[in-house]
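hey m, so remember when u said the C-alpha cells were messed up on ur end? i reran from scratch. heres the input so u can diff it against urs
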Amino acid sequence: MDNLNLDVHAGEILGLTGANGAGKTTTVECVQGLRRPDSGTLSVLGFDPATQAARLRPLLGSQLQDSALPDRLRVAEAVELFAFPRAHEGGELLERFGLAERRRSAFSSLSGGERQRLFLVLALLNRPRLVILDELTQGLDPAARRNVWGAIRQLHQDGTTVLLVTHEMAEAEGLCDRIVVLRAGRVLDTGTPGELVARHANMATVQFSWPDPPASLLEEMNSLEGVCAVKRTAARITVEGSRATIAHVGLTRP
C-alpha cells in the first residue's frame, strides 16, 4: 500500500474496488491482522490488528477470497465447528439464508451460491460488528449472485458494518453506501455511487432508428440541454451528451 487513508463508518457498506493488483485484498488482510502494514497506524474497532489480534478477531466476521471447506464436511458440522461460545443460534442463520434444508448436505454438494451463503453464515456466527467480504460473488451465475446480494442487503438492514471487496461495478453500485476506488495502493477517488458516476461517467449516448425523420428533428435535438452532438447515418440517429440527455431525447416530439 502507498500512504492509504481509509475510514469505514459504523453501519455502512463500504466497497473497495479497483483493477487486479490495486491493493484491495492486501487492505482487508491488514484490517484482519493477517498481514502487517510496512508503516503507518491502523485501528479497527479501537484495536491494532497487528498487536491486538486476539482481542479483535471475536468482533470480526470474514469471508476470504479463497474460502473453502473439506468436501465431506456437512453444513451443520461446519456451523458447529466455527461457532464461538457466544455465537448466534446456527439453525436461525441457516434458516435466514435459505440453507435450513441443506443442514445434512456435504460441502461438495452445494452450488456456488449456496457455498457463498454458507460462508456468510459462518462469518456471522460470532455476532461480529464488522463483516469483511472479499470477492463474495466471483464466478457465480446471475441468479446466485442476486441471492447473495439479498443476503448482504439484509446484513445492512440489521445494522452490520460491511467492508465489501469487489471489482464488479454493478455490485458496488447496487450494494454500497460509499465506494473507495484503489489504484496501486492509493485511493484514486471515493464517494457514493451517484457521486462517482457524476464525476467520471456523466456522458451518455442515445441511439434509435427513425427511417424518415422530420426535417427539423436534428436541429431540435441539437438545441436540447446537455446535447453535444447529433449524427444521422441512414435511418439511425445518434445523440451524444450528458446523462440528462437520455431523458430530454425521450421527451422530444416531431
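this time it looks ok to me. The chain has two domains: 13-199, 203-250. if urs says something different then somethings off w ur setup not the seq
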